Amino acid sequence: MSKVQVETRINGEGVEFLCEPQQTLLEVLRETLSRTGTKEGCATGDCGACSVLLDGRLVCSCLVLGVEAEGKEVTTIEGIAGNDGLHPIQQKFLERAALQCGICTPGLIVATKALLDKHKNPDEETIRYWLAGNLCRCTGYDKIIRAVQDAAEELAYEA
Amino acid sequence: MGAFAYVAPTTVAEALGVLEEHASQGKRAQILAGGTDLLVQLQSVDRTPRTIVDIKKLEEANRVEVGADETFVGAAVASAVLNENEELKQRFPGLIEAADLIGSTQIQGRATIAGNLCNASPAGDTIPALIAIGAVCVIASESGNRELAVEDFVTGVGTNALQDGEFLVGLKIPNPPARTADAYLRFIPRTEMDIAVAGAGVALTLDDAGTCTAARVSIGAVAPTALLVTAAADALVGTSVDDDALAAAAAACSAAASPITDKRGTVEYRRKVVGVLCKRAAAIARDRAQA
């Protein structure tokens, strides 16, 4: 089986890798590139734990082939924090204790980033619909929603 | 056994060449658009090696054209992109609503209407919505493009009319005449992200007096394929789409349905609900056409 060479950008950095044609981007990120921040939950596009941005659009990396990353810009959870520390979304998730086991958290943070890039001041309904593809079996979601609202407020204040 | 391979052709001719070559050698090739069905199937029910032909680099498949006579939606356009297109939303609100009912934000970032159609699930939400607005499949083949009405495209559960060597490039939709509107409704037991128990798409045209002059009604998830229900449309044409006409259209939909009983609903329930959905969707389309 011949591997395919792929050139892409991950979190602003040029990356080359070899992968099987049928391998998912999620597998490549975790197993080939050792970027294990992106989590595997269901591997069928239902849970959102593997959420990444592909050219700025929120997708499940388990439903994207590694080869499809060719020439694209991929943003993973590892690319969210800035040089001077946590991103406000990450900070608010901590402050609001919006996580327990943490498996869903990277996906939720990436999905929140995509939401707040698009909607500066989302109402609760918009937040809940936007994040409906990110399943959390621990928190009951309420703390997550509060963290997102806090982050939206802080980011609007910063802007 | 063969091996997996991936190609991303940049022209339709190149894509057709790959399909033709595989067909002539008895090798398997499969089109990849959004991948939200394909990748799941690849990891579960059907792991056999094949050549994956990604159509996302084709100019035609990425095109969205809201033209003077017709609208074209390329087969590789993600539903999130369609949902951001205000012109399209205004022209075919029912179709865009149907696409917006499918999956999460993540899924909508990849999933395509054409993929929903090719996957040919009885419960595919965009299929009745496409049939209602008279959408036509633009199919590329070695002998040139051929066109096929959406209601004739799906041939059974999970099967479609594409022949070996062909693929769906996009969907062509005639522009709605004045005072025409569409709507799509489905029923699911949850508030979102579920598979339709029943669905109904309606498009209708009113004259200046508010009388319905043309209608198309399609129902989903209540038969092996989505159905065009001409009897329901006939019940609306010539009326002001009043309660009596809506009741007659609903009865026609219930009569046309041949549902199964499964974990999402029984035969009796689906038959009743599809009528109610037709009635409500027709009322929405009527109100939109009047606006």
Largest sheet of chain B: 5 strands, antiparallel
Residue-averaged pLDDT of chain B: 97
Number of DSSP E strands of chain B? 14
Category by helix and strand content of chain B: alpha+beta
Share of helix of chain B, binned: 25-40%
Count of distinct strands of chain A? 5
Spans of chain A of at least 5 consecutive residues whose pLDDT stays below 50 are none
What is the straight-line distance between the termini of chain A? Answer: 50 Å
Given this structure, which CATH class of the largest domain in chain A is correct? Alpha Beta
* Series of H and E elements of chain A: EEHEEEHHHH
User: Would you identify the CATH architecture of the largest domain in chain B?
Assistant: 2-Layer Sandwich
Largest interface: A-B, 33 and 28 residues
Which percent bin holds the helix content of chain A?
25-40%
Distance between the termini of chain B: 59 Å
Q: How can the largest sheet of chain A be summarized? A: 5 strands, mixed
Q: In total, how many domains does the architecture of chain B comprise?
A: 3
How much is the average pLDDT of chain A? 96
Q: Remind me, CATH topology of the largest domain in chain A?
A: Ubiquitin-like (UB roll)
What's the CATH topology name of the largest domain in chain B? Uridine Diphospho-n-acetylenolpyruvylglucosamine Reductase, domain 3
- Return residue spans of chain B where pLDDT drops below 50 for at least 5 consecutive residues: none
What is the element layout, followed by pairings?
The complex is a heterodimer of chains A (about 160) and B (about 290).
Chain A: E1 4-10, E2 13-19, H1 25-32, E3 51-54, E4 57-60, E5 73-75, H2 88-95, H3 105-118, H4 124-130, H5 142-158
Parallel strand pairs in A: 1-5
Antiparallel strand pairs in A: 1-2, 3-4, 3-5
Chain B: E1 5-7, H1 12-24, E2 29-32, H2 38-42, E3 51-54, H3 59-62, E4 64-66, E5 70-74, H4 79-83, H5 86-91, H6 93-100, H7 105-108, H8 113-119, H9 126-132, E6 136-140, E7 146-149, H10 150-153, E8 154-156, E9 159-160, E10 167-174, E11 180-187, E12 198-206, E13 212-220, E14 227-228, H11 230-236, H12 243-256, H13 267-290
Parallel strand pairs in B: 1-3, 2-3
Antiparallel strand pairs in B: 4-5, 5-10, 6-7, 6-10, 8-9, 11-12, 12-13, 13-14
Helix pairs in contact in B: 11-12, 12-13
